[in-house]
C-alpha cells in the first residue's frame, strides 16, 4: 500500500530527521527569508483539490459515503513521493471515494478514528515513509527530538508501531470492517523479523496487529484489486490469489495446500530457539524477492501459516507513468498552513525518475521494498512533472534532485532478458558487474539535457547517490563506456551543487565485501577523475563520502585504518552513522544471529555501547577531545603504529592541528587557501584578556 522510496539505508529520510524546522527568532537573514517564503506562499489550490481529511471536506464533495479510509502516521502531503497520497490518488482514479486521516490521535476517546465513520470497503493503514522505530529512535536507541514527516518536526504525533496501534483501535471500533496494511513498516515485517529496539525476534506484524492482509512493496495494483474483489461481494478472508500480498490462515485453508514448489521456512518457534534457522530463512526470502519468477513463501506461527504470494512483474513504463501522472497538488494539505514539514521542504523541488535498485547493498531495504529490477518513467512523464515544478510560486529555477533510489540506474536492464529469468543474485553489480547488464547512460543523459533545456530551469542537481562503480565499469560495449565517460563529466560539470555525495561506506575491502560494496580502490579511481575534471573545468567542488561503523564483520582495527586513510585523503568526515539493524536486510540478520545468511559462518558484530563507541570515535580523529581516547584504544588493540600516522609525535596539550572548515575533499590546487599555521585554542582567549585590560 505504499509508494514510499526508502533511499540508501532509508537515507533521505534519515537526513531529513536532522533537518531542523526554521524558527521565527532565526538569527540569519537567509533563514528568515526561507521561513517567510515557506510560511506565507499561498496555495494555488482549493480545499477540494486535495483528498478529504475531515467530515466537512467529505461533505464539500457531496459524498454521503466513503469506500476506503486511509490512516497514515505521516502528515498528508499530496505529492508522489509520499505513499498515502499515491495510494489515495490511485484509488480515486479507479473510481473510489477515498479519504485520508493523517497522524490520528491514538489516545483518549479515539475521535480521529471515528470522525469519518465506517467505510464501505476497508480501512488502509500505513506507518509512513519510514519504519516508525527508525523514525522515532537513533541508532543508540535514544528518542529523536524531531520527526521530519510531521508539521514543524513534532516528534509526538506518531506512536511506536502505528501498523499495530492503528489496527487494534480500528478492530475494536469496527470489528467487521477489513483492515489492509501497507507501507514500509508492514512490508518489511511481514515474516518473523528481528526488532533491534525491542531486542527480540518478533512474529509477522499480521499476528500482532490483527489486520487481515499485508500489501508489500509498491502497492498501486494490489490496493485496487482488493477494492474490486470486496466490491464484488467477496469476504476479505477468501481473497488469497492476488499477487504481492501476505495473509494468515490455517493449514487447511492454504490455497491448493502446501505445494512442492512452495518455500516453507523454519517456523517462528524454531527460529526463537535457533538463530541459525532465522539466518537460513532470510536467504530464501531475499532470493525469492530478487527473482523474476518467485515462489510462494510459507511460515508457520502459532499453529497457523503466514502465506506470502509472489510479487507482480516489474511495472512497465506506462504503469509507472500512470502513478506519477495522477492529479497531485504537490503541496501539504491546507490544514498545515503556517507550519513546516521538513521532509517536504527537502523534496518539494525534486523529481523521481525511476523505481527499484539492483545495487543489493547488504544494509539497505530498497530492493526488498521496491524490487531489484528498474522501472523507469518515460521522458514525457518526467518533463510533464518538471513543468509542474516550474509553475510552483516559490520555485527559483533549481531542481534539488533529478534521481531515484540510485542516481544512475535509469533505463538499465539485462541485455538478454531470458538470462534474467533464471537469476536470483541479490545484486547485478556485486561482487562484479554482471556482463549481461546494460550500463549505457545515454538515456539518462538525454533526460538531463531535455530537463535543462526547459524554460524556467536554471540548473538541475543530482542529489541521489551516484554508483561510481557503474561509471568506472569497462564494458565490452564501447558505446556504453563512452556514455559513462560523458555522464561523469556532465554530472560533475553541470549537476553538482558544490558537493557530490557518494557512498563508499568503508575502506576495508573485507568489510566492503560483506556490505556488497565495491573495493575502495574504485573510490580512489573515481576521486582522481573527479579532481581532474574539476581542475579542467575550473571548479572548486568537493566529494562528501558516506561511511558506516559497527557493520557486521567490522572491527576496531578496520575503523582505525579507515581513519588513517581518510586523513590521507584530507577528509574530515561528517556524513557518518552507526549501523542500525532494520528488518529484512542481510546485515540485520547477520547482526542478530551471528551467522552470515549465505555461508552460515560465524560473523562478529559490535553490539555493546562501548564496542560501538570505540568504532565510531575513529570517524572523528581530527577532534581534539577524541585524541586521548583514540590513542588509548589504538594501544589496546595493538595498533600503536597508527598513532603517528594520525597525530604529531608531540604530546597533546589542547593544540588543534586541523582547520575545522576544511571538511570534505577538494582539488589539490584548493589547498593553498587552507590555514598554514596551526591554530591554538587559547589565542582568542589571550586577545580577549588584552582587550579587557
TrEMBL record:
Pfam families: DUF3362, Radical_SAM_N. It comes from the Bacteria. [4Fe-4S] cluster binds at residues 357, 361, 364. Residues 1-41, 653-693 are annotated as: Disordered. Transmembrane segments: none annotated. Binds 1 [4Fe-4S] cluster. The cluster is coordinated with 3 cysteines and an exchangeable S-adenosyl-L-methionine. Its cofactor is [4Fe-4S] cluster. Keywords: 4Fe-4S, Iron, Iron-sulfur, Metal-binding, S-adenosyl-L-methionine. Belongs to the UPF0313 family. This is YgiQ family radical SAM protein.
Amino acid at each position: 500500500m505504499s509508494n514510499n522510496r526508502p533511499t540508501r539505508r532509508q537515507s533521505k529520510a534519515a537526513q531529513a530527521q536532522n533537518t531542523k524546522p526554521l524558527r521565527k527568532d532565526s538569527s540569519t537573514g537567509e533563514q528568515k527569508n526561507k521561513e517567510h517564503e515557506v510560511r506565507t506562499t499561498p496555495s494555488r489550490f482549493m480545499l477540494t483539490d486535495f483528498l478529504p481529511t475531515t467530515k466537512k471536506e467529505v461533505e464539500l464533495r457531496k459524498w454521503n459515503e466513503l469506500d476506503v479510509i486511509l490512516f497514515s502516521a505521516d502528515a498528508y502531503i499530496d505529492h508522489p513521493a509520499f505513499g498515502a497520497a499515491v495510494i489515495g490518488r490511485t484509488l480515486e482514479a479507479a473510481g473510489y471515494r477515498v479519504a485520508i486521516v493523517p497522524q490520528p490521535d491514538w489516545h483518549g476517546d479515539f475521535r480521529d478514528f471515528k470522525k469519518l465513520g465506517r467505510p464501505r470497503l476497508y480501512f488502509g493503514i500505513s506507518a509512513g515513509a519510514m519504519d516508525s522505530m527508525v523514525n522515532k529512535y537513533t541508532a543508540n536507541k535514544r528518542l529523536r527530538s524531531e520527526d521530519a514527516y510531521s508539521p514543524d518536526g513534532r516528534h509526538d504525533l506518531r506512536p511506536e508501531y502505528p501498523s499495530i496501534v492503528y489496527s487494534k483501535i480500528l478492530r475494536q471500533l469496527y470489528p467487521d470492517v477489513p483492515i489492509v496494511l501497507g507501507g514500509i513498516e508492514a512490508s518489511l515485517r511481514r515474516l518473523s523479523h528481528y526488532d533491534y529496539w525491542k531486542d527480540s525476534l518478533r512474529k509477522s506484524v499480521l499476528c500482532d496487529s490483527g489486520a487481515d492482509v499485508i500489501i508489500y512493496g509498491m502497492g498501486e495494483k494490489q490496493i485496487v484489486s482488493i477494492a474490486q474483489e470486496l466490491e464484488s461481494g467477496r469476504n476479505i478472508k477468501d481473497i488469497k490469489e492476488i499477487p504481492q500480498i501476505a495473509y494468515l490462515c490455517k493449514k487447511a485453508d492454504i490455497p491448493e495446500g502446501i505445494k512442492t514448489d512452495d518455500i516453507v521456512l523454519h517456523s517462528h518457534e524454531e527460529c526463537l530457539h535457533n538463530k541459525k534457522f532465522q539466518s537460513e530463512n532470510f536467504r530464501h526470502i531475499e532470493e525469492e524477492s530478487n527473482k523474476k519468477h518467485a515462489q510462494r513463501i510459507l511460515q508457520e506461527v502459532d499453529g497457523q501459516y503466514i502465506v506470502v504470494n509472489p510479487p507482480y512483474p516489474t511495472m512497465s513504463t506506462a504503469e509507472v507513468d500512470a502513478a506519477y501522472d495522477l492529479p497531485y497538488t504537490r503541496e501539504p494539505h491546507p490544514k498545515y498552513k503556517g507550519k513546516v514539514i521538513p521532509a517536504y521542504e527537502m523534496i518539494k523541488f525534486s523529481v523521481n525518475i525511476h523505481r527499484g535498485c539492483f545495487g543489493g547493498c547488504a544494509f539497505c531495504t530498497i530492493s526488498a521494498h521496491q524490487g531489484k529490477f528498474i522501472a523507469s518513467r518515460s521522458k514525457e512523464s518526467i518533463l510533464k512533472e518538471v513543468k509542474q515544478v516550474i509553475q510552483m510560486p516559490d520555485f527559483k529555477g533549481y531542481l534539488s534532485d533529478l534521481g531515484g533510489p540510485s542516481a544512475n540506474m535509469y533505463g538499465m536492464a539485462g541485455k538478454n532478458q531470458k538470462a534474467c529469468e533464471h537469476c536470483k543474485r541479490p545484486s547485478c553489480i556485486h561482487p562484479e558487474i554482471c556482463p549481461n547488464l546494460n550500463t549505457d547512460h545515454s538515456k539518462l543523459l538525454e533526460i538531463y539535457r531535455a530537463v535543462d533545456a526547459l524554460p524556467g530551469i536554471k540548473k538541475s542537481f543530482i542529489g541521489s547517490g551516484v554508483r561510481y562503480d557503474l561509471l568506472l565499469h569497462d564494458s565490452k560495449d564501447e558505446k556504453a563506456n563512452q556514455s559513462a565517460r560523458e555522464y561523469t563529466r556532465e554530472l560533475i560539470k553541470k549537476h553538482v551543487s558544490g558537493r557530490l555525495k557518494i557512498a563508499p561506506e568503508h575502506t576495508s575491502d573485507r568489510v566492503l565485501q560483506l556490505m556488497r560494496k565495491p573495493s575502495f580502490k574504485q573510490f580512489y579511481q573515481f576521486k582522481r577523475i573527479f579532481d581532474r575534471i574539476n581542475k579542467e573545468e575550473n571548479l572548486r567542488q568537493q566529494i562528501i563520502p558516506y561511511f558506516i561503523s559497527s557493520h557486521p564483520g567490522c572491527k576496531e582495527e578496520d575503523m582505525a585504518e579507515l581513519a588513517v586513510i581518510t586523513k590521507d585523503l584530507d577528509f574530515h568526515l561528517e556524513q557518518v552513522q552507526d549501523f542500525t539493524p532494520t528488518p529484512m536486510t542481510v546485515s540485520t540478520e547477520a547482526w542478530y544471529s551471528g551467522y552470515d545468511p549465505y555461508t552460515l559462518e560465524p560473523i562478529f558484530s559490535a553490539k555493546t555501547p562501548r564496542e560501538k563507541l570505540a568504532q565510531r570515535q575513529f570517524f572523528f580523529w581530527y577532534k581534539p577531545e577524541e585524541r586521548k581516547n583514540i590513542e588509548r584504544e589504538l594501544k589496546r588493540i595493538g595498533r600503536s603504529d597508527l598513532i603517528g600516522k594520525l597525530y604529531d609525535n608531540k604530546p597533546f596539550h589542547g593544540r588543534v592541528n586541523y582547520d575545522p572548515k576544511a571538511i570534505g575533499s577538494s582539488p589539490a590546487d584548493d589547498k593553498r587557501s587552507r590555514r598554514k599555521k596551526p591554530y591554538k585554542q587559547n589565542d582568542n582567549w589571550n586577545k580577549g584578556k588584552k582587550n579587557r585590560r
